[in-house]
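Structure representation:
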Amino acid sequence: MPLPASHPVLSCSEARVWEARQLPDEAAEWTAMQAAGRKVALAVLDDYREIGGLPPQARILVLAGKGHNGGDALLAARTLLQECPAARVDVMLLFDESQLRPLARRSLDALRESAGTRFAAVTPEALHPGTAGNGSASADSPAPAGGTSPSWDLCLDGIFGFQFRPPLEPSLAAVITQANAHSGIRFRAAVDLPSGLGESAGSVVFRADFTYATGIVKGPVVDPIHAPAVGRLRYLDLGFFATDAKPETKTRVLVPGILDPIRSLRTPLSDKRTFGHLLMVGGSHSYPGAILMAVRAALRSGAGLVTVCVPERFAAEFALGLPEAMWVGCPVNASGGLATAGLSRIAEKLHRAGALLVGPGLGADPDTIALATRLTAEAKVPVVLDADALRPEVLAGLVGRPFVATPHAGEWQRIAPVLQSAGSSLPGPGILVLKGPLTRVTDGRVACLSPFGGPVLARGGSGDILAGLIGGLLAQHPEDPFLAACRGVVWHGRAADRLAQERGQVAVETSQLLDQLGPALAPSTW
């Protein structure tokens, strides 16, 4: 199967060589820098909406180095001032102006000309706690009252790019340390990668809330050890991989284009059977809500038919709330979980399905796990395993057959031994969706990373919605579990981003993700 829509993650040295091929002269570099600056600014405006939006009279601090990374940050500030006419910018050059590379100097001049009186140059003293005044070389930014250091709504880090090599000069390390500790900075954004991080890390690294990888995602920003400094990763495509001749890498970043087929018109010569049939098995007396959220997601995935096997007491009630699904009541055991006595009833429904999802709300009763083990072992269709179905004994029965497993960190620890005992990271044609701040989808050979989603997903039920989405997509394309998993992760993450941008990260409910699935199919603005 071809790889899902994705771009390679490159080492810093590989990125340097590839970027040089794409940008053969100064004119091409300037065009790319302008695009990078604008995309960083628009992405910041989107992400800032998660905490109420960038204030109209925002104060922006740019930490600028002497190279193209500093130029990108300065150009991003220019776009932000264009989008926010009452905002102003403080620029802290960390090198003498005479040391700026030509395009960094050009970026600084462009910002000065565009900003006019809204531009001020500041010195590192502005970051010192208790500073009386702002360390400004201009009178345009008055000193804050009370002799305290100034505050900024946004700090753009553009000191170093991916060509950074330690050691870090003590004066620059001090600036980064002070920026990290400054209580008056509300939102920290790193351009391309946090300053102090390259192929290896310096003595101190800028700690970003968001890192905006421009053009190429570099390996250090996806290394889990650097996650505290990187914050949330965004990938800004500058067209460096517009041709089919992309580097082949084992780690890749998923791009919004993976959703293009879902955005396209469906054939008019179709009926409900055209778009697949998903059988879902889950729910228990202890956890009835999980299967409901998974079913709602599956129904919105575009699947043509959804059949759901749940404890008998819930079938009629759930059918009233979601009549689009076909509900099958099944016997339960003493703990209120699905009993092995209902296996034949479920197996009869499985015969008509194109994919099987087992797990949401299932519970951990041994009899219920035995049902899941026998059911998945007999299934002739690809299987999605989630929640309590993520058990070693269930996975062991799937060796050599297509499946998707969706563990979070704790569930991964539970199932890792059986995968390792199979002699490889995955037994047969299995797909792992390793959920986390940077969700990874892997078949054991290639890992695709999703730069979508965020803390709004740190709620009970978000995994059930993801499982339902993947199950519904798999029913439509049972021949490609990897694609279904990657597409589901991107769709889910983009819905989460939209929810957080519209309603914030805190006062939301997990089920509100469902209403963002449609809007999440809109093309990205950056």
About this structure: The first strand starts at residue 6 and ends at 10. The chain has two domains: 6-249, 273-517. The chain is about 35% helix and 15% strand.
